[in-house]
């Protein structure tokens, strides 16, 4: 696992291709600084093409999933000596786009990502969560689109992804405009998370079990499924149908299809090659 040796992320490859990945700034409640943003992007780009990884379980070390952005980092990057407003705006736009690309690396990753949230999940934390595929949380998890309290609008994907996840425009506007906290049960009722658990251990166990189920399936099928879901979320039904027809025109030729069919007929467990 030397190639997953990061300062602010911890990683461990479990059985059957499940990568356990955690935010690892526990003393800062996993608040995002420049280095963590950079490592997140590099790590998920590596995961995307790592043949040994079939699914990711993503969590946070310490007493919180993520307390948001590191305020020292934010202040140092928004205090700019340039006086010309046009140039200053371009510098800040470049800064925001870099952070957006780091979070989007999760959504763009070829592998399914299961997120386990406990404790605080604030600001950037909930935006990171929105970029994952499946979300579990503890009953005491506390979510907040907190940026409104800091005098700015959420800008790394939350306002774009959360309405599509929840499907209730009014509710997301309420949460974004008030910047209020909400807990695990409300997150489940909103559809933000799939399940709520009593504690982090229970949530992690369930996430690992789900990840093992996913990892046992054809990795080609999982990549195609995630890509199609991502594409279809942004396009019409007809465009989505055309996309998967083209994609499966190639992928139906994979050896995974006859392997899966044979295993189904013989009621045996299929074995698929790495990507």
Characterization of this structure:
The protein has 275 residues and is α/β, with parallel strands linked by helices. It has two domains: 2-215, Alpha-Beta Complex (2-enoyl-CoA Hydratase, Chain A, domain 1), CATH 3.90.226; 219-266, Lyase 2-enoyl-coa Hydratase, Chain  A, domain 2. It is built from eleven helices and nine strands. It has helices at residues 34-48, 71-78, 85-108, 124-130, 158-166, 169-178, 184-190, 200-215, 219-234, 237-251, 256-266; strands spanning 9-13, 18-23, 55-60, 113-117, 120-122, 134-138, 142-144, 182-183, 195-197. The strands form two sheets. The protein has a six-stranded mixed sheet, with helices on both faces. A three-stranded mixed sheet has the order 5-7-8. Helix 1 runs parallel beside helix 3, helix 4 (124-130) crosses helix 5 (158-166) and helix 9 runs antiparallel to helix 10 (237-251). The model has no long low-confidence stretch (mean pLDDT 95).
Furnish the topology, listing elements before pairings.
Elements: E1 9-13, E2 18-23, H1 34-48, E3 55-60, H2 71-78, H3 85-108, E4 113-117, E5 120-122, H4 124-130, E6 134-138, E7 142-144, H5 158-166, H6 169-178, E8 182-183, H7 184-190, E9 195-197, H8 200-215, H9 219-234, H10 237-251, H11 256-266
Parallel strand pairs: 2-3, 3-4, 4-6, 5-7, 6-9
Antiparallel strand pairs: 1-2, 7-8
Briefly summarize what is shown.
With 275 residues, the protein is of the alpha/beta class.
Can you give keywords for this protein?
single chain, about 280 residues, alpha/beta, 2-enoyl-CoA Hydratase, Chain A, domain 1, Lyase 2-enoyl-coa Hydratase, Chain  A, domain 2, 2 domains, six-stranded mixed β-sheet, three-stranded mixed β-sheet, globular
């Amino acid at each position: 696992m030397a190639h997953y040796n990061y300062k602010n992320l911890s990683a461990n490859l479990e059985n059957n291709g499940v990568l356990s990945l955690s935010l690892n700034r526990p003393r800062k409640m996993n608040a995002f600084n420049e280095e963590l943003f950079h490592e997140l992007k590099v790590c998920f780009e590596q995961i995307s093409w790592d043949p040994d990884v079939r699914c990711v379980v993503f969590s946070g070390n310490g007493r919180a999933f993520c307390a948001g952005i590191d305020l020292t980092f934010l202040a140092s990057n928004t205090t700019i000596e340039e006086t010309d407003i046009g140039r200053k705006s371009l510098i800040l736009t470049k800064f925001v786009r870099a952070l957006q690309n780091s979070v989007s690396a999760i959504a763009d990753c070829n592998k399914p990502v299961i997120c386990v949230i406990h404790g605080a999940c604030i600001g950037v934390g909930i935006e990171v969560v929105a970029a994952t595929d499946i979300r579990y949380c503890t009953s005491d998890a506390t979510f907040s689109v907190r940026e409104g309290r800091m005098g700015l609008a959420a800008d790394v994907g939350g306002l774009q992804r959360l309405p599509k996840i929840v499907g209730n425009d009014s509710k997301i506007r309420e949460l974004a405009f008030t910047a209020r906290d909400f807990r695990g049960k409300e997150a489940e009722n909103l559809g933000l998370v799939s399940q709520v658990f009593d504690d982090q251990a229970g949530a992690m166990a369930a996430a690992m079990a789900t990840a093992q189920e996913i990892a046992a399936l054809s990795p080609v099928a999982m990549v195609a499924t995630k890509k199609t879901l991502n594409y279809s979320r942004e396009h019409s039904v007809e465009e989505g149908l055309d996309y998967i027809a083209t994609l499966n025109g190639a992928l139906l030729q994979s050896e995974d299809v006859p392997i899966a069919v044979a295993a189904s007929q013989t009621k045996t467990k299929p074995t698929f090659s790495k990507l």
